[in-house]
Design a protein that fits this description.
Elements: H1 5-9, H2 21-24, H3 29-36, E1 42-45, H4 52-62, E2 66-71, H5 77-94, E3 98-103, H6 110-114, H7 117-122, E4 125-131, H8 135-138, H9 141-145, E5 148-151, H10 157-168, E6 175-176, H11 178-187, H12 192-205, E7 208-209, H13 211-218, H14 230-244, H15 248-260, H16 265-280, H17 286-301, H18 306-319, H19 325-339, H20 355-359, H21 370-375
Parallel strand pairs: 1-4, 1-5, 2-3, 3-4, 6-7
Helix pairs in contact: 10-11, 10-12, 11-13, 12-13, 14-15, 15-18, 16-17, 16-18, 17-18
């Protein structure tokens, strides 16, 4: 059976591990753990291809323990119980602990994750969970509190280049041109597994890997973007902040990242409608009209042409004048309504819809068109706020 190149290249010790210096460098936590053999339960959080599984393997090799690989994608509660049972028997018979590596642990539901808790507490198993999603959202708090969280970063281009060259060293008869290597490095986007797979495909295509071969092997760039996770929120946040900062180039960059990753175009359009009101407001009121029209157009047209509508609208909003006067004014008014005693509505502003109300002076003295009176030269002094709030300014036009 053919062993994938990624498995052949997987380091067994930290000496051959590439990247994550903040965790495996001298005197760093995982390096110290491996050197001392003092291993504890942990969650490894990072994007695909950054070394989570490899780190778990290296840790397992550093201590005298059983190592069990477990996939949350294909396993259920019954499988969890079987692993726990075997771990318990191993401990009783050999006084040997079990390192249980759970890949994609975020895919386990609450009850499945809870099944690990008592055994992690007893020390029957050392749990190493790997996840690409924010543990704060997807890992149960009790399990997370009993584990050390380690955050892994995407590999740098320098790291990926080392991985690529190491992979190529296993094929001495294959020659790779520099621009081909750089293409693979650049478009692997920090994902070592993606880079290794590209080398494996390229080697199968030709004994001389030029740029064309590298492009054929990769087909497209590796874009990791979870529509429900941090990358989703981080990218839309960067998109909004770029529009707010008036940078159309950055705005288009983050828009392109979302579109390339398959983000829902209506989600982007809705956020632009909100932005038009929240951040542009009355400084350029047409922004809300443009954004609303764009949302309707995106709904009618659909991808791929809707990309053009989103791009046009995003750059319009980015370069538009900005004002948060209406936004801050509303928030301040809402805050007052929530925490202050609500004063009575002035009688002259109340609706006198019947005789009783008129007798109680509802609407008395109200000037319907104050602007008209002033235009005709008449001085109008009419207060609209309750007397307790007289002089209060919510809407400050220079904001």
């Amino acid at each position: 059976m053919h062993e994938p190149l990624a498995e052949r290249l997987r380091p067994q010790t930290l000496d051959n591990f590439i990247g994550q210096e903040h965790l495996v460098g001298k005197d760093k936590p995982i390096r110290v753990m491996v050197e001392t053999g003092n291993v504890y339960s942990m969650i490894l959080w990072g994007p695909p291809g950054c070394g989570k599984t490899t780190l778990a393997t290296v840790i397992a090799n550093s201590v005298d323990a059983e190592f069990v690989f477990f996939s949350a994608v294909t396993s259920g509660v019954a499988d969890v119980r079987n692993v726990i049972k075997q771990a318990t028997e191993t401990w009783k018979a050999k006084k040997k602990r079990t390192i249980l590596f759970v890949d994609e642990i975020h895919r386990f539901n609450k009850s499945q994750q809870d099944a690990f808790l008592p055994h992690v507490e007893k020390g029957t198993i050392i749990l190493i969970g790997a996840t690409t999603e924010n543990p704060g959202f997807r890992i149960n708090a009790p399990l997370l509190s009993r584990s050390q969280l380690f955050v892994l970063k995407p590999l740098t281009d320098e790291d990926i280049e080392k991985v690529v060259k190491h992979a190529l060293s296993l094929f001495p008869k294959v020659k790779a041109e520099k621009d081909a290597v750089q293409h693979i490095v650049k478009y692997s986007n920090g994902d070592a597994r993606f880079a290794i797979n590209a080398i494996e495909v390229a080697v199968s295509l030709s004994k001389k890997i030029d740029l064309k071969t590298a492009e054929e092997a990769m087909q497209q760039r590796a874009v990791f973007y979870d529509k429900k996770g941090d990358y989703h929120y981080d990218t839309i946040s960067a998109f909004i902040k770029s529009m707010r900062g008036g940078d159309p180039d950055a705005t288009l960059h983050y828009l392109a990242r979302m579109l390339k990753a398959g983000e829902d175009p209506m989600f982007i359009a809705r956020r632009m409608v909100i932005f038009a009101s929240e951040d542009i407001g009355n400084a350029q009121p047409t922004a809300l009209v443009v954004a609303t029209s764009a949302m309707q157009a995106v709904h009618m047209i659909g991808l791929p042409e809707a990309q053009l509508i989103l791009g046009q609208t995003a750059t319009y909003l980015s370069t538009a004048k900005k004002s948060i006067a209406a936004t801050l004014g509303l928030y301040e008014a809402l805050n007052d309504v929530e925490i202050e005693n609500l004063p009575s509505i002035p009688l002259h502003l109340r609706n006198a819809s019947n005789k009783v109300m008129k007798e109680l002076d509802y609407g008395k003295g109200h000037i319907r068109y104050a602007w008209k009176e002033e235009k005709e030269g008449n001085k109008v002094e009419q207060e609209y706020l309750p007397k307790e709030l007289k002089g209060k300014k919510y809407y400050k036009k220079d904001w």
